[in-house]
Design brief:
5-stranded antiparallel beta sheet; 23% helix; 3 helices; 145 residues; alpha+beta
Length: 145
């Protein structure tokens, strides 16, 4: 679980958290998880790969008000056998444990040189093993499988 302090810029004139702030917290939680497992910008540059998103779906459940901090949990919804494609679920909570949003992303790894999807190194496959899995986890089947 990753903790974040909300800031003034996260809110609009109606004192609602901006919809994009929820997605920013989810993205930062993913990056922190990668970094904890030594998958950082240096790693991406060394291996000439990086993550991309195809889809990001957010469900808003309860509002977050100015001054309320958040916690973000991330879980693996699915991954393809070769690790090329993945789905991650983020749950955003208020500090008191109230669930405020759910964000699901569908992504893959892209080769910096060819600009095409690619299978990741073994260390990224090991990263997927470190993820907590959702109750509804399902492997992603690719067309050629």
């Amino acid at each position: 679980m990753y903790k974040f302090t909300t800031k003034w810029a996260d809110f609009d004139a109606n004192k609602h958290m901006r919809h994009s702030a929820y997605n920013d917290f989810a993205a930062e939680a993913r990056i922190r998880f990668f970094n904890e497992h030594k998958i950082d910008m240096n790693y991406f540059n060394q291996h000439q790969i990086g993550p991309i998103l195809f889809k990001e779906e957010t469900s808003f459940l309860k509002e977050i008000l100015p001054g309320e901090d958040v916690k973000v949990n991330i879980e693996l919804l699915g991954v393809s056998a070769n690790g090329e494609r993945w789905k991650i679920r983020h749950i955003i909570y208020k500090e008191n444990g109230v669930k405020t949003a759910q964000i699901e992303v569908y992504g893959a790894w892209i080769c910096y040189e060819t600009r095409k999807l690619t299978t990741p190194p073994i260390s990224i496959m090991q990263l997927f093993e470190a993820f907590e899995k959702t109750n509804d986890y399902k492997p992603i089947l690719l067309k050629n499988e």
